[in-house]
Amino acid sequence: MQASETASETRPRRRLTKVGRVVSDKMDKTVVVSVDYLRRHPLYRKTIRRTSKFKAHDEHNRCKVGDVVLIEETRPLSKTKRWIVREILERAQEI
Q1: Which of 22, 66, 68, 94 is the most buried (most CB within 10 A)?
Q2: In 3-state terms, what secondary structure has residue 30?
Q3: Strands 68-73, 81-90: parallel, antiparallel or unpaired by DSSP?
Q4: What is the CA radius of gyration of the chain?
Q5: Residue 85 and residue 69 in contact, taking contact as beta carbons nearer than 8 Å
Q6: How would you label 24-56 residue by residue, b for 16+ Cβ within 10 Å and e otherwise?
Q7: d(CA 69, CA 32)
Q8: With a threshold of 0.90, does the pTM exceed it?
């Protein structure tokens, strides 16, 4: 074995995590999570709020619209689903 192979085997890769709000739970075992982030405009330097949507796997259909969840990067589970719900951080307010 070479040194580069043993170094990669001993140290697992950290998986990317994001915190976002569930915007749709219409699909079975899948939720759509909206993640907001702030960026500076390249010319005007004003801070702009941008949004990305990710489809995440929710094995037991526990997430509801409005919940704040922690999602983690995983292997491709379908054509567009590459994230999994790790935990529900905050439940949506009941009206």
Answers
A1: 22
A2: strand
A3: antiparallel
A4: 17
A5: yes
A6: ebeeeebbbbeeeeeeeeeeeeeeeeeeeebbb
A7: 11
A8: no
Q: Cα–Cα–Cα angle for 19, 82, 74, nearest 5°?
A: 80
Tell me the two tokens of residue 86.
């790790």
- The one-digit pLDDT tens for each residue of the chain (95 residues) are 555 555 556 777 788 999 999 999 999 999 999 999 999 999 999 999 999 999 999 999 999 999 999 999 999 999 999 999 999 999 988 77
* DSSP run (H or E) holding 8: helix 3-10
Tokens 């491709």 sit on residue: 76
| Site of tokens 């995590």 | 17
Q: Are 54 and 32 in contact (CB under 8 A)?
A: yes
Instruction: Look at the alpha carbons of 59, 60, 66, 67 in this order and tell me if their dihedral is positive or negative.
Output: negative
